[in-house]
Structures are given as C-alpha cells and as structure tokens.
Design brief:
By secondary structure, this protein is of the alpha/beta class. Helices cover 43% and strands 21% of the residues. It is built from 19 helices and 18 strands. Helix 9 links the parallel strand 9 and strand 10. It is globular. It starts with a strand and ends with a helix.
C-alpha cells in the first residue's frame, strides 16, 4: 500500500493505523499527493494531510482502493496541540478504513502496546477512571467490552503499582535458548542443537554480569522487588547450570524485600524433577509451564516438541515439588486450532486450577516462520476474536480476574494479551514491566535494561548484545556500557 503524508510529522502513528487493517502489507510512504493517480487498482492508497489558512488548521484524510474513494475533512483551531492533532488524524484515517472494509476493531484507533497505561494517564488528567473509560469510547472508538476489560485491569494494576517505591527495581535474566523454535516466535533465541557449545561460556558470563549488576544495585541503595528469569526457555539448561545462575542471584543481591521470584519453565518437554528441585531450592515463588494449546495436532503444526499429556505430567510434577504458584499460557488464533478446540484447552486448564492463566492472541511477527511460510490466516482472525471473548467469560466465571494487559502489532483479530489470576496471585513483575513502574535491570543476551527516573517519567535503555555468541565474545564492552546505570541514578539521587 501507499501512505501519503503531507504537512505533518505523525507518520509513525499513521502507519500504525494502516497496519491495524493491513498487517501484512508493505507500506510505502511518500509526500507526493499525486501518488494515488499512478497506483494500480489493487493498491490501497491512504493519505493524511494538514494545512493552514486564515481560519485555522485543516485536517484531511482519504482512502482509495480500486474504484472506491473515501475522504474526510475537519477544520480545527490553530492553537490545538500536537497530540490532539495526531489523535484526530488517526481517528479520521481509522474511520475511513473501517468504512471501507465494513468492520470496526475492538480496540478502535488504539495503536499502542499499553492501553491500561493510557487509561491511567487519561484518568489522572480528567479526575476519574469512569471519565477515562468514556474518553476512550468517544475519542478513540474503543468498544464497550474492551473499555470494561481495561478498567478492570487498571483497578488491579493500581494496587500493585502502589507497592513500588522510588528506590525500587526489578531484575530480568535472559536465557535465550530453546529446545526448538516455535513457528510463531520472533524472540532472539537459539535451539540447543545449534547453540549447545555456547551455553557453558554463556552461563559463566551471565553469572559475572549478575554479580556486577548486583554490585551496582548495592552501591545505589536500590531495593529489589521482583525477579523474572525468562528466555527462551531457562529450563533447557541443566539442573546444575540453573542452580549456578540462581545462586549467583542470591550471592549478588539483597533479597530481603523481594516480593516475587519467577522462573519460566515454559516448555513442558524441558521440565524435569532435578531442575524443578534446583529452582525450588533457590527460593523461586512462581513458575510458568506453558502448553499454548492442548491439541496435539496443533502443537505439532506450530513446532512444539511435546504433547498435551507431557504438559499434564510436567504440571503434576511441579505440584509434587511444592510449587503453589503456577502460571499457564494459551494462544488464541493458532492455525489449525478452532473455537471448539480452544474452548476444550481452556476448560482443561481451568480444571487444573493454576494460580494464573495468560491468554495471548497470535501475533504475526516479521521474523517468525508463520510470517514467512503461512498465508491462510483469514479464518484464524475471525475465530481468535471469539476465542478471546470466550476466555474472558470463562475465566471470570472461574474466579480469575485480569491483572495486566498489553497489545502487539499484527495481532490476529486485533485483540489483546491478558494475564488472569486468582486474587493475590498476580504476576507482579508483569505489571511493573508493562506499566514501566520502575527500573528493570536486565542481564543476558538480548536483555534490555530500562532505567526509570524515580518519581518521574524519564526512561533510558541500555541494550545488551542480542545473540549469545556476541554476548560471549564482546562481554567486556557490554559490561562497560552498563556503568551508565550509576551515572543515570546519580543525576536524581
């Protein structure tokens, strides 16, 4: 498709609106207002223009596809601020797409990852959560159901966010290795078969980075609230390797204020008793064991090397090892799955009564095998919306409540990812991370340290090298970069 931008600098948001309706189209951006005339009939051409005259500012949008042409125009005050102009242009373009394709998306013209954070900001501005809910419906065209879900999540999140203090931080540890690559995955992770030789050195250097990061936290007097060991699949490591990493955490950080310690055991085919015992003995309070679906045919088609039965075995083993806070994940909209199959998977998970269940919607990431090889997603899109709606109804009825929520680009059906938990079992790290409540110090390949100004909104990122081989080879350079944490905090303390 072609996107014409003229007279304003809101290109990024206009592209996001286009991707809501055309997630797999390559977008060519131009300032040539005549580009539509030379485009072929199969090409979608969208434009957003801003100009000024004696009366104020003129905003206009147009959409052309084949022999159909839609347009809209609005005159506004010359004193309108930039964010409001951006919103008006986005809603104008969204409305043209919705009219052309004859459907509206549940989240309307919301394009950001964090709709709950957006609602919180609007609530603070207008003085009430209900005012924020009304604003989202009126000015971003969000559906009643999604506004309600967002509001319920906000209420729970707000209680968790209040736990954080100016000196609080969380710790993320990356283990970017997996037993195999799932077809929907775009994370920087490596299969064990291809990267086994890197793992011993990686574990050694990861422990060194943990030690160095702990020394920074102690020097600055920071208070560790939550730890999350993710990936990848951390449990692809041996029990001894897991124990070494977790012991490094204990040796390097003050855990006296720790509220939560999560380790992902995401792939059931990597869950073994000795690994669970190593994790449990390290003081871990929460783990994730994630089937994604309990349909064996779908598991095979998406590149998972385990069966539904293997998930049940892993879950039972975790309970026997003493874990009393387990999260499980499902994905709505997987190719090969259908509404009845998703319903059965959901009901089986609810029957196990895990402390939390996270429902993701399939997102078609550029680097995933699905994006490269799969084209039959139309049916997945329509069914995924029904699946997500079903999950909301079923989980509420079973006593779960939403505690964090986020969205991704190119999500099948335009829905969301929601974490559901029983009361008092919310995943605190997930909330702190998604809200950007406080600093997250991150260790490992692909990890991103996110520095948050205490009692402020300034955020700065420090990126580790993405790939394990880079991490191993350029470790000293990366460690020097992390010294920026100290100078960042010295500015505010």
């Amino acid at each position: 498709m072609i996107l014409i931008i003229k007279g304003h600098n809101y290109e990024f948001e206009m592209q996001n609106i286009c991707r809501l309706f055309l997630p797999f189209e390559k977008i060519k951006v131009t300032d040539d207002v005549n580009a539509a005339e030379s485009a072929d009939s199969a090409t979608v051409v969208a434009s957003t223009l801003m100009s000024a005259d004696k009366t104020g500012v003129i905003l206009s949008a147009a959409l052309s596809h084949g022999d159909r042409h839609l347009s809209a125009k609005e005159n506004i005050s010359a004193y309108t601020d930039g964010k409001e102009i951006e919103r008006r242009l986005a809603v104008m373009l969204y409305s043209l797409f919705a009219k052309h394709f004859n459907f509206r998306l549940p989240w309307g013209a919301v394009t950001g990852v964090r709709p709950v954070k957006l609602m919180r900001r609007i609530s603070d501005k207008y003085g009430s959560e209900q005012a924020a809910a009304d604003w989202l419906k009126k000015y971003l065209l969000v559906s009643e159901d999604k506004v309600k879900l967002c509001l319920e999540t906000l209420i729970t999140e707000n209680k968790i966010i209040k736990l954080s203090q100016p000196q609080s931080f969380s710790l993320y540890i990356s283990v970017p290795f997996c037993p195999s690559r799932c077809d929907y995955c775009s994370f920087v992770s490596h299969t064990v078969e291809r990267a086994a030789r890197l793992i011993p050195e990686y574990v050694e250097k990861l422990c060194r980075e943990i030690e160095y990061t702990g020394s920074i936290a102690r020097r600055l007097g920071l208070q560790l609230e939550t730890i999350y060991v993710g990936g990848g699949t951390p449990t692809v490591l041996s029990a001894a390797q897991l124990a070494r990493i977790l012991n490094a955490v204990h040796d390097s950080f003050d855990l006296s204020c720790l509220r939560e310690f999560t380790v992902e055991a995401g792939r059931p085919d990597t869950v073994e008793q000795d690994k669970l015992e190593a994790i449990k003995s390290a003081g871990t309070t929460r783990i994730s064991i994630n089937p994604q679906t309990l349909n064996d045919d779908v598991l095979k088609s998406i590149g998972r090397r385990h069966s539904a039965d293997r998930f049940f075995e892993a879950y039972k083993l975790a309970r026997l090892c003493g874990f009393d806070n387990i999260n499980t994940d499902l994905i709505a909209g997987l190719p090969g799955d259908d509404y009845d199959g998703f319903k059965l998977s959901l009901e089986k998970l609810i029957g196990l009564a895990p402390e939390s269940i996270t429902v993701h919607t399939l997102a078609m990431k550029r680097a995933s095998n699905f994006m490269k090889n799969y084209s039959g997603l139309d049916d997945c899109s329509s069914q995924s919306v029904r699946m997500v709606d079903l999950s909301i109804c079923k989980l509420k009825s079973a006593g779960y409540r939403p505690y964090y929520l986020y969205r991704q680009s190119r999500t099948v059906g335009g829905t969301e990812n929601t974490g559901w938990s029983k009361p008092s079992y919310e995943g605190l790290y997930n909330v702190f991370m998604m809200d950007e409540t406080h600093t997250v110090l991150a260790c490992g390949a692909g990890a991103v340290t996110k520095l948050k100004q205490p009692d402020g909104d300034c955020i700065e990122r420090i990126f580790n090298y993405k790939f394990p081989y880079e991490y191993n080879e350029r470790f000293d350079d990366m460690i020097q970069r992390k010294g920026r944490v100290i100078s960042f905090y010295e500015t505010f303390f």
